[in-house]
C-alpha cells in the first residue's frame, strides 16, 4: 500500500548522540568500497521500510517489493545507493511526485503501470525512462498515449544474401553501407530534379533563327549532356528498383506499394521517350511523358521523415479534406450563380455561371487575383459574403488536420528519442567494457608491484560507472 511518511527530525541525528559520527562512518564505508570494490548499499533490516523522498514527498516501501524488478533503478540496491542521503537516511529523487505514485505501484502490483490522467504522456514517459523500467512498460504507455505504433512485422527473405541486400536497401539505419547508399540515392534524386528544371531554361536552348542549311532547326548542343546525365540517373533508379524487387520477400506487396509505384513512374518516362520520335504525332505524348518525370520528387519521401509525416497526415485527414472539397464545391456553385445574376450582362466578365467558377474559387480561398471582379453594389455584396464564407469553410477542418500532424510529429520525436537512448546505451556498454579492461590491467600491474589493488578507473563508489552517473544526474542529492 502506498503511504506518505512524516518527516522525522530524529533520523538526522546519530543514535549514539556523537556529533559527526554519521559522517565519519559514511567516509569509512566509502573508503571500504573504494578499496575492495564492494556493493556498499545502505544497510536496512529486512523488516524496516525503505524511505524514498521524491520532490519533498516521502514514500515508504520494502526491499523485497523493489527487488521484484532488479534490473531497474530502484530494484538495484547498487544503482539507487547513489541517491542515498546518509544524513536523512532516505533516498532522494528530485523528480515528478505524482508520476512516482504510479511508478511505485508498478513494483507493488508486480508490473502494472498506469499513467495518471492529469500527468502528460511525455512527462510520465520521461519519469519511466529515468527509473529505468522495462522497455515493454514504456511501449505500453506510448501505445496508450498514441505516440507510437504497434510493432509491425518486418518479413525478411529466406536466402541469406537476399536478406542482406534487402536489409541494406530498405532500412538505411541498419548499417553504414545502407546509410551511404541512402545518401547517394538522395544525391542522385536531387541531381535528376536539377536537370529536369535546368533543361527548360532559355540559356540551355538553341536560339531562335539559327537553323541549318536544309531548313531544320539547329540541334541543341546541351541535348547530349542532358541525355547522358539522365541515362546515369535512370540506370541507378532501374538497378535499385530491380534489385529491391528481386530481394523482396513479398513481391506482390512490393509492386502495389505507393513508394514503389512512384519509383516505377519515375523510370518509365525515359524508356517511353526512347521509343518515340519527336514528330508532330508524338510531340503531345512526349510532353506528357516528360511531365511525369516530376514524380521523381516523391522519391525523396523514402529518405525524408518530414515528407513521410506530411504524407501520413494527409492520409489520416482524407475524410476532412474530402469534406473541405465538398463544402468548397457547394460554395462555388452558390456564389458563382449569385454573382452571375448580379453582374451578368453585355460586356460583363461573368459571361456564364461556369465562367464565374474561377472567380468564386479564388475568392473563397482568399487569393483574389483581381483579373475578374464585380463592379455593381449587389455584386460586391456577393463578393464579400463569398470571401467570408470561404474563410469559415477552410477554417473548419484545419484543427483536425493540425491535430493529425502533431500526432505523427510526436511519433517521430519519440522515435528519435528512442534512437538516442539506444546510442547512449551502446556507449555505456562500451564504456563499461573499457572500464573492466582497464580494471583488469590496473589490478595486474598493482599485484606485480605488491601494492593494494585499486578500484577500476571510471567506476564510482558503489559500483556505478560514469555512464550511469550521467544518466542519473538529475535528482542527485549531495551528501
TrEMBL record:
GO terms for molecular function: delayed rectifier potassium channel activity. Residues 419-435 have a biased composition (Basic and acidic residues). It holds the Pfam family BTB_2. Coiled coil: none annotated. Keywords: Ion channel, Ion transport, Membrane, Potassium, Potassium channel, Potassium transport, Transmembrane, Transmembrane helix, Transport, Voltage-gated channel. SUPFAM superfamilies: POZ domain, Voltage-gated potassium channels. Signal peptide: none annotated. This is Potassium voltage-gated channel subfamily A member 2.
Amino acid at each position: 500500500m502506498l503511504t506518505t511518511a512524516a518527516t522525522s527530525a530524529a533520523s538526522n541525528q546519530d543514535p549514539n548522540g556523537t556529533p559527526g559520527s554519521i559522517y565519519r562512518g559514511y567516509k569509512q564505508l566509502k573508503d571500504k568500497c573504494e578499496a575492495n570494490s564492494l556493493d556498499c548499499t545502505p544497510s536496512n533490516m529486512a523488516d524496516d521500510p525503505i524511505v524514498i523522498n521524491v520532490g519533498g514527498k516521502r514514500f515508504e516501501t520494502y526491499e523485497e517489493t523493489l527487488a521484484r524488478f532488479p534490473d531497474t533503478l530502484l530494484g538495484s540496491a547498487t544503482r539507487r545507493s547513489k541517491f542515498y542521503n546518509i544524513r536523512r537516511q532516505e533516498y532522494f529523487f528530485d523528480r515528478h511526485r505524482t508520476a512516482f505514485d504510479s511508478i511505485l505501484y508498478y513494483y507493488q502490483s508486480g508490473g502494472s503501470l498506469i499513467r495518471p490522467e492529469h500527468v502528460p504522456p511525455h512527462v510520465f514517459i520521461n519519469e519511466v525512462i529515468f527509473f529505468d523500467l522495462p522497455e515493454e512498460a514504456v511501449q505500453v504507455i506510448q501505445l496508450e498515449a498514441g505516440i507510437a505504433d504497434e510493432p509491425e512485422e518486418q518479413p525478411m527473405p529466406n536466402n541469406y544474401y537476399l536478406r542482406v541486400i534487402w536489409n541494406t536497401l530498405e532500412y538505411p539505419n541498419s548499417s553504414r553501407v545502407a546509410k551511404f547508399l541512402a545518401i547517394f540515392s538522395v544525391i542522385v534524386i536531387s541531381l535528376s530534379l536539377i536537370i529536369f528544371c535546368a533543361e527548360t531554361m532559355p540559356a540551355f536552348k538553341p536560339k531562335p533563327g539559327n537553323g541549318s542549311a536544309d531548313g531544320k532547326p539547329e540541334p541543341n548542343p546541351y541535348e547530349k549532356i542532358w541525355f547522358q546525365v539522365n541515362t546515369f540517373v535512370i540506370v541507378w533508379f532501374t538497378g535499385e528498383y530491380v534489385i529491391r524487387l528481386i530481394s523482396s520477400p513479398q513481391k506482390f506487396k512490393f509492386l502495389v506499394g505507393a513508394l514503389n509505384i512512384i519509383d516505377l513512374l519515375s523510370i518509365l518516362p525515359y524508356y517511353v521517350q526512347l521509343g518515340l520520335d519527336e514528330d508532330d504525332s508524338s510531340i503531345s505524348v512526349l510532353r506528357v511523358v516528360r511531365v511525369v518525370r516530376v514524380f521523381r520528387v516523391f522519391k525523396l519521401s523514402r529518405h525524408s521523415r518530414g515528407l513521410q509525416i506530411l504524407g501520413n497526415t494527409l492520409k489520416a485527414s482524407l475524410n476532412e479534406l474530402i469534406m473541405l472539397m465538398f463544402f468548397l464545391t457547394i460554395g462555388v456553385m452558390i456564389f458563382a450563380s449569385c454573382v452571375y445574376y448580379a453582374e451578368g450582362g453585355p460586356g460583363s466578365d461573368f459571361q456564364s455561371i461556369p465562367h464565374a467558377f474561377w472567380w468564386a474559387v479564388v475568392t473563397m480561398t482568399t487569393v483574389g487575383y483581381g483579373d475578374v471582379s464585380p463592379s455593381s453594389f449587389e455584386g460586391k455584396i456577393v463578393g464579400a459574403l463569398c470571401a467570408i464564407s470561404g474563410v469559415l469553410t477552410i477554417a473548419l477542418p484545419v484543427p483536425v488536420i493540425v491535430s493529425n500532424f502533431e500526432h505523427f510529429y510526436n511519433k517521430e520525436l519519440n522515435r528519435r528519442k528512442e534512437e538516442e537512448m539506444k546510442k547512449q546505451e551502446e556507449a555505456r556498454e562500451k564504456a563499461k567494457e573499457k572500464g573492466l579492461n582497464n580494471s583488469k590491467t590496473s589490478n595486474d600491474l598493482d599485484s606485480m608491484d605488491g601494492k593494494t589493488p585499486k578500484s577500476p578507473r571510471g567506476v564510482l563508489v558503489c559500483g556505478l560507472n560514469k555512464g550511469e552517473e550521467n544518466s542519473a544526474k538529475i535528482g542527485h542529492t549531495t551528501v
